[in-house]
Request: fold
Amino acid sequence: MATDLSGEIIRKSQERPTNLTVWQWGLTLGQATGTTINLATKSIKRMSRPSDDGISFYEYIAYQGMRDYQSQLGPVGIQNLVRSTAKTCKQFAKRHGLPFSTINLPDGTVAHRLGALNCRRSVVFFHGGGYMAPALGQHINFAFGFNPSAHSDLAVYVLQYSLVTETANPYPCQLQQAAALLNHLLRTESISPLSTILLGDSAGGHLLLGLALHLRNPHPQVPPVKVDGRFAGAALISPWTTLYDEPEHSSSDYTALDILEPSALNRWAKSFLAGAPPDPWNAPLTADASWWQDLPIDNILVIYGRDEYLANDGKQIAETLQAHHEKDCESEKVYRAWLDSIPKDI
Reply:
């Protein structure tokens, strides 16, 4: 179990730290209903005034709806309205005929395995959602390269990290849980780093970057992780790296082309950091160049969209890795093809 700098034991919380009361449920459903009505009004205006922004009506509804709900609902409301990571993983496994099991560690860390115990290849997945939302089915689908049935020899481990609210589960809670899971997989389940990919999306990409730096330069409040050899690779999908400042963006039209609401992203970052000062694990772009040169990871893939709000975050971390990591950082390969390239006979 992790301790803080004074030796105090750090207790891990459940994924959703707060359950709504009946009164709070009423308020939350009222907010959600109001947001839905407002979205319907915007949709009618969109239909009557065609736009040349390049997105379809369906995309407009999806993107605008995500942004509206992010701006109107707080983390606790979203966490109670959205299906939990556990239920999402279990339903995904059932739908695709995959073995499913839950890993419960002594310190409270929880993860879910989709795939058989002794698969030849593994993906350790850290999902996105601003550190405040559970994993979605689309996240799990991506971890399997969009085709779960084609990877019968692959096991995906999904960390069910504790979700952030304004008062619960701040940094470095999630990094502690990520390190605990990795230690369990390497020591207890004896997975081979050489046949394992570490995958992080958005906030999960931020978590993965902190974990990668932790492997050789341990965070003082997080148990060290001993890696014998090197991981086959790491994939960072639209990584969120600038939590202390508003991300720079390369396109003035990102608001119409992305699902992220900047004001909500800033609130989530403040809740996650909870006043913690910048350090290399929560602000990876501030890490010394030498920290990137010694990562026990072979290939690193960075993917981001040209017009997305976090495009510059992805660009900056890709440039950092290309400059300092001993292997070139690939930023244009397709994840599924790269996943298929991992040796199956390890």
Remarks:
- Residues 255 and 309 are 8 Å apart (CA to CA).
- Confidence is low (pLDDT under 50) at residues 1-13, 331-335.
- The chain has two domains: 16-81, 83-340.
- Residues 16-81 form one domain.
